[in-house]
Amino acid sequence: QQQQQQPPQSSLLDQQQLLIDQIMFNGANTTTESTTTVDSNGTAESTTATSSHSAASSLARQLADLNAENGSSSSDEDDDDDDDDTEQQHSQQQHPLSFRQLQHFQGHEARLCRAKFHPMHRHVGTTSFDHTWRLWDIETGQCLLLQDGHSRQVFALSFHPDGSLVATADFGSVLQLWDLRTGQSAHDVANAHARRILTADVSPNGVHLATAGDDGLIQVFDLRRCRRNHPKRKKKTPALASIPAHSQLISQVKFHHGQGGGGPGDGEFLVSSSFDGTAKTWSARDWKMLNCLRAHQGQVSCVDILPPTTNPT
Fold it and tell me: 3-class DSSP state for residue 209?
C-alpha cells in the first residue's frame, strides 16, 4: 500500500527537471532595478535589486523538498527490499531442507515404470516400456548396464539385499534374474503368472522373492532353487507358494524389514495392496493371511511398512 501511494520515479524526475528549467529561465530573464538615494551629507548611494531573486529562491526550496521526498521514497524501497531479504532468510531458517537436481538419467525410449536404489546406494535401476531395464551410476549419470532380455514391457524391479542379483518382470508374465557381477541373465521363469507381473520384492533374508500382478495371485520363489537351475536347462522353477491373495489386480507386494542386515525380524511377514480396496498381511512362515485392512473406498495403489524406531515414544 505504501508503494502504491508513492509517486512513480519517472514523475519525480520530471518535476525536478521542470523546476531546474524554471530556475534557469528566471535567471536568464532577470530584471535589474537601480535606485539612487542621497543622504543628509549629500552622498549618493546606489542600490540594485533583482526581481527574480525571490522567485528563484522559492523554486530552489521546492526542488530541495522534492529531492528530499525522492530520497525518502528510495529509502522506503530499500527498506522494502531489506524486509524481503529478511523474510526470505527467515523462511529458509524455518525450512532448512532444500532440493536440487544431482543427476539426469536419460536413455530409455519409452515411459519409465520403476526406479529403485541399489543396496550400495551408488547405483539406480530403472524399468521401461521400451522392453529394457538399465543400471545407472549416480555420480556420473552413465548407464552401466542395458539389458534387453524381455520381449514385453518391463515393469517390476527388485534388488537382492547383497546387491549381487536383480529381479525384473514384464507384461508377458516372464520373471528374470540377473547377475550384476557378470551382467548376464542368471535365471528366467516363463509364465510365472497367468497375466501381467506388476510388482516384485526380494525378502531381506535374501531367500524369498515375491511377485504379483493382474491375476490376483502372490507367487513366492526360493532364490536358492533358481540359482541351482542353470538358465540353459530351461527347467521350470515351481513357486514355493502360490497365494490367492486378492480378487483384483495386486498393485504392490513388500516384505517387512526389521533391524536390517538379515537379522531377527527381517522378512517375517509380507504385505500386499490391491485394486479390490484392501491391503493384507501374510506370514512368511506358512504364507497364511494375518490380517485384512479395509478402509479405502477405492483402489489401493501402493503399500509400505513403517520402519522400526529406536525411540519407543
Answer: strand
